[in-house]
Amino acid sequence: MLELKNISYRVSTPEGELDILNDITLTIPDHKLVVFTGPNGGGKTTLAKVIMGLIRPTAGQILYNGQDVTDLDITARARLGISYGFQQPPRFKGITVHDLLLLAAGGEKLSKDRCCNYLTQVGLCANDYLDREVDASLSGGEVKRIEIATILARKGRLMIFDEPEAGIDLWSFARLTETFEQLHATGNATMIIISHQERIIRLADEIIVVAGGQIAHRGTTEEIFPLILADTLGSCPVMNRKEAAQ
Amino acid sequence: MITDIDAKLLEKIADLTGKPAAALNIRKDSGCEARQSTEHIEITGKTDKPGIDIRIKDGTRGEKCYIPVIISRTGLTEMVYNDFFVGDNCDVEIVAGCGIHNSGCDESRHDGVHTFYIGKNSRVRYSEKHYGENAPDQTGRNVMNPQTIVYLGEGSVMEMDTIQIRGIDSTKRFTKFVCEAGSEVVVTERLLTHGRQIAESDMEIQLNGDDARGRVISRSVAQDASEQVFYPRMEGNARCFGHVQCDSIIMGQAKVKSIPAIAANCTEAQLIHEAAIGKIAGDQLLKLETLGLSPEEAEETILKGFLR
User: Fold this and answer.
1) Domain limits, chain B
2) Is A86 an 8 Å CB contact of chain B?
3) Which of A155, A175, A156 has its CA nearest to residue A165?
4) Does residue A244 have a pLDDT over 80?
5) What is the pLDDT of residue B13?
6) Which residues in chain A have Cβ-Cβ distances shorter than 8 Å to B287?
7) CA nearest A88 in B: which residue?
8) Is B307 within 8 Å of A52 when comparing Cβ atoms?
9) Mean pLDDT in chain B?
10) Interval B205-246: pLDDT, tens
C-alpha cells in the first residue's frame, strides 16, 4: 500500500513561492490500477516523481508498505519494488535494448524468449530490436515502447507510467492498452498511470484528478468521467461565453 | 618467459590465452617471445630496423594473426615498424595491441608504426587495444604513440577497431587511410583518459577512388583532469561517401577538443561530419537509478556502454 501524507512541493520563482503540490494526502491500496489525470501543469508528473524519489517533497511523508520512504533515494525505492516509466525516456549510445532489459530485470537471467515476450507486449519484435542501441536511430515512439518494456521486465510491485500513450501510434496503443489490462488482471502489481486517454482511463479502478497541485476529484470511472467531460470547456472563458449564449 | 602478469596483459590487450593455432608474434621488452607462421601467413623479423613483416598470401580466408606487444620493464623505450602485405581476395583478422606493466618509476614507452599494403577485394579486420598499469607503489609513466598507415586496394574493406582501455599517461596517435576505388574503411576509435593523462588523435582518410566509402566513429571519455584532442580529417577526391562522427563525454576538470574536418575536391563527393562533447546526461543517470542501480553503478554502466 502506498500512502502519501500531506505532500507539498514548493519552489521559488522570481514572482515568489509557488506550490506545485499543495498538501496532498492519498492512499493507494495494493493491486489497484489508478489513473492520474487532469490539466497540463496541474501537478500529475510531479506527484508521480515524488513517489519514485525523482523529486523530494518540501513537506509531507511517503509510506510504502508501511515503511517511511520519504528520505530514501531513487535507487533504494527502486529496490523496494517501485518502478517508473518516463514520459520522455533518455537515449543511450552503446546500450542496446537487450542491455536495458537485463538491467531492468536486475539479477534475473533473462532468456531471449522472455525479452521477446516483454517487447511483444509493447508491440515490438525482438528480432528487430533486441540488438539495437537505444540511441537517436530509434523514433520517439520506439524509445517509449522500449521504456515500457523495461518496466515490465522490472516486475515492480508498484509501477508508475507517465503518459505511456504519448508518441505511440494507434495500433501500438491498442496493444499497450491490452497489456495494461492483462497486467492488472494478474493482480501482481499496483499501477499508477498518468493518462488523458479514455481507453486507459476506463481501465482504472480509481481516477484521481490532479489540478492546481491538489486532488480535485477522485472516484470510479463512472463517477469521474462525466466530470472530466464537463470540465473540458470549464477553463476556457471564451468557449463558456459562447456556450452560454447558445 | 611469459609471467602471470604478462599473461594477464596478453588476455587484456589481445584476448590471447595460451598459444592459438594461428600466426603469432609476441614482442616482449623489445625481444621476440614467440613467433609462428602458418601456411598462408608468414611472419619474419626485419633486418634493418626493429619490427616484423607479415605477408598474407592471396586468397587467405578465415585466418587470424596475433601480434601483441608487452612491456614489463620500467624505463624501456622502443620504436617498432611492422609492415603488413595482404594479398588479393583475402578475409583475415589481425589482432595487435600493446600492454605496459610498469615495474618502476621511469617512463616506459612504445612507439609503433603499422603500415598496411592491402591488395584487391580483400577484407581485413584489425583491432588494437592499448592498456597500461603500474606495479604497486610505482609511478613510472606509460606512453604509447601508435601510427597506422593503410593503403587500401580496389574493392577492399578494412574495419579498424582501436581502443585505449586505460592507464596510458600520454598518447599521440596518427591514423591514415588511402582508399582506392570501391574500397571501404570503417574506423572505430574508443578512448578513455583519466588522472592527468593526455591523448591526441590525428586521423586522415583520403577517399581517392570512385565509390570509396569512409566512416570514422570516435567515442571518448575524459575523466578527472585529463585532456584529449581529436583531429579527424576526411578528404573526398572522387565520387565517394564519407562520414565522421565524434562523441565525447567530459567529466571532472577534463578538457576535450574535437576538430573534425571534411574536404571535398570533387563535386560527386558526399561528406558529413558530426561532433558532440558533453557530460553524462542527468536523465540517463536517473533512468538507470529507477532500475535499481546506484548513482555510481549508473555512471559506470553509461560509460561502459558508450565505450563498448
Assistant:
1) 4-281
2) yes
3) A175
4) no
5) 94
6) 86, 89-90
7) B283
8) no
9) 96
10) 999 999 999 999 999 999 999 999 999 999 999 999 999 999
pLDDT reading at A233 higher than 80? no
Nearest to B144 by CA among B124, B166, B176: B166
Please give the residue of chain B at the shortest CA–CA distance from A151.
B291
Our CA-based measurement puts residue B55 at a distance from the nearest CA of chain A, in whole angstroms, of 35
Which of B291, B304, B306 has its CB closest to that of A78? B291
Q: What is the pTM of this model?
A: 0.88
pLDDT of residue B254: 98
Question: What is the three-state SS of chain A?
Answer: CEEEEEEEEEEEECCEEEEEEEEEEEEECCCCEEEEECCCCCCHHHHHHHHHCCCCCCEEEEEECCEECCCCCHHHHHHCCEEEECCCCCCCCCCEHHHHHHHHHCCCCCCHHHHHHHHHHCCCCHHHHCCCECCCCCCHHHHHHHHHHHHHHHCCCEEEEECCCCCCCHHHHHHHHHHHHHHHHHCCCEEEEECCCHHHHCCCCEEEEEECCEEEEEECHHHHHHHHHHHCCCCCHHHHHHHHHC
pLDDT digits (tens, 9 = 90+) for B20-46: 889 999 999 999 999 999 999 999 999
ipTM at complex level = 0.92
B-chain residues near A150 (CB < 8 A): 291
Q: Which residues, at least 6 apart from A104, have a Cβ–Cβ distance to it below 8 Å? A: A150, A151, A153, A154, B291
The model's confidence at residue A235, banded by pLDDT at 50, 70 and 90, is low
The answer to whether the beta carbons of residues B175 and B206 sit under 8 Å apart is no
- Strands B157-166 and B261-264 turn out to be unpaired
Give A166's pLDDT tier (boundaries 50, 70, 90). Answer: confident
Degrees, nearest 5: CA angle A41-A45-A48: 150
Name which of A75, A86, A154 is nearest B294 (Cβ-Cβ): A75
Contacts of B286 in chain A (CB under 8 A): 54, 74, 90
Task: Kindly list the domain boundaries of chain A, sorted by start residue.
Answer: 88-155
Q: How many CB pairs under 8 A join A and B?
A: 59
Tell me how close the Cα of A55 comes to any Cα of chain B, in angstroms: 11
Q: Does the CB of A73 have a partner CB in chain B at under 8 Å?
A: yes
Contact across the interface for A86 and B281, Cβ inside 8 Å: no
Chain B residues close to A86, C-beta within 8 Å = 283, 287, 290
| Percentage of residues of chain B with pLDDT beyond 90 | 97
Instruction: State mean pLDDT over B274-300.
Output: 96
